[in-house]
Amino acid sequence: MNFIWQKLLVVGMVLAALLAVAGCGNTSPSSSGSGEEGKNEKVIIGQSSWIGFAPLYIAEEKGFFKEHGADVEIQSIESKTDSKTALAADRIQGVSTDMSTQVMNAAAGIDLVQILALDTSAGGDGIVAKKEYNTIEDLKGKKIALDTTGGADYFWFQYLLQQKGMTLKDFDVQNMSAGDAGAAFVAGKVDAAITWQPWLSKAEKTDFGHTLIDSNANPGVIVDTFAMKKSYIKEHPQAAKAIVAGWYEALEYMKTNNDDAIAIIAKRVGEKPESVKDELNDVKFYDKVGNEKYFGTSDTKGDFYKVTALAAKLWKDLGLIDKEIDANSIIDGSFLNAQ
């Protein structure tokens, strides 16, 4: 009887040992998988179809983000309000939009920081007007269409008006989105519109319209940036580095593989390659050198700080925000050397 129990005891010990080994085997792949996920953190970023954000599509398509440690998914969000809501609710972790909108988002209570300058408008935004009007002063009392809820074009127009000592009260303002403003002008419903491409080109093709002034006149004022929540960056610094490095790599790819880059962009924005090529002429992208110059150094701050401070003051003066925003609190150049 004792012999039988001894045999059972031995068998039990063997089974226990086998189970322990099996358990260790099951734990190892799980840990390994977790480590792989850590190397490629899932990040969702929001952006509109504006051509200035196009290199991000290339970085996603060619796997540049993943190479640097982040699994980035670009989500199409055309509305500034929708992207702000998504960022506030953590449905997205980053957003590409114009600098003045980033200021408004920060004033709305989103603790964000801009870590990368993407592009500056170089003719992609402008004022189209009937041919009999040749200056902004000529438009006084006329019906003009623009988006008065904020954004790049509104900021730029207010910037121009300040230089001339004028205000919106000098015009018959029709509030609508920048795209709708361009369409309204082409349809002959307004005397002028503050809009962007492709509406500038469409206005030029009418027999009554022309571009009164475009953003080439004020380089560095209409600037698009990429921002993330500070709390997210603190927990996932590698994701921030990966996005910056992926952006740089995408810009290089556009130089060395232009046809493929154009094809990728065209597919993502739903346009013909030739149209994309034309639109790319209206923006200037910030590469690493451009970013370093625009951000400046801790001792000598670049124009980024000046323009951001200008936007913060302008929005506060106009009553569009009720909180003062310090440019230093929403700009972080520590990721610019990401590789």
From TrEMBL:
Residues 1-22 form the signal peptide. InterPro entries: SsuA/THI5. It comes from the Bacteria. One of its GO terms (cellular component) is periplasmic space. It holds the Pfam family NMT1. Keywords: Signal. It is found in: Periplasm. SUPFAM superfamilies: Periplasmic binding protein-like II. The keyword Signal applies. Residues 52-260 form the SsuA/THI5-like domain. PANTHER family: ALIPHATIC SULFONATES-BINDING PROTEIN-RELATED, TAURINE-BINDING PERIPLASMIC PROTEIN. Belongs to the bacterial solute-binding protein SsuA/TauA family. This is NitT/TauT family transport system substrate-binding protein. It comes from Pectinatus cerevisiiphilus.
